[in-house]
Amino acid sequence: LIFPHLLNIVIILCGNKKDLDADREVTFLEASRFAQENELMFLETSALTGENVEEAFVQCARKILNKIESGELDPERMGSGIQYGDAALRQLRSPRRAQPQGTQECGC
Fold first, then answer.
1. In 3-state terms, what secondary structure has residue 22?
2. Could you tell me if 25 and 15 are in contact, meaning their C-beta atoms sit under 8 angstroms apart?
3. Domain presence at residue 97
4. Structural domains counted in the chain
């Protein structure tokens, strides 16, 4: 297994078919330990009931956002793998450049 912390990527291990507990082949504890040892996020999900399906995406997105805010990831760096969905959001997140003294910012 490649170590995700070295690549600065986010990986989530999803145990699926949580609703079929009787047919389980990997215990929650085994999967949880594996995820922890390999620095992976871990959730058990069920597409049938919808349990934790959305939560998997939310947790993954939250972890990526935390890495951006802490400076671990730079979305502006080519090859970061991160793109903002809307150009307006890029402008909101980018720090404004200081205007030279005596000039005004165009309001058009």
1. helix
2. no
3. no
4. 1
Q: Cα 46 to chain center, whole Å?
A: 20
On whether the pTM is more than 0.70, the answer is no
Distance, CA of 107 to CA of 79 (rounded, Å): 33
Query: Which pLDDT value is given to residue 77?
Result: 80
Tell me which residue has tokens 């090859």: 79
Cβ count within 10 A of residue 104: 6
User: The domain containing residue 80 runs over which residues?
Assistant: 12-92
Q: Interior CA angle at 85 toward 80 and 91, to 5°?
A: 85
Kindly tell me the sign of the dihedral angle through the C-alpha atoms of 23, 28, 34, 40.
positive
Kindly report, residue by residue over 79-99, the tens digit of the pLDDT: 777 777 766 665 655 554 444
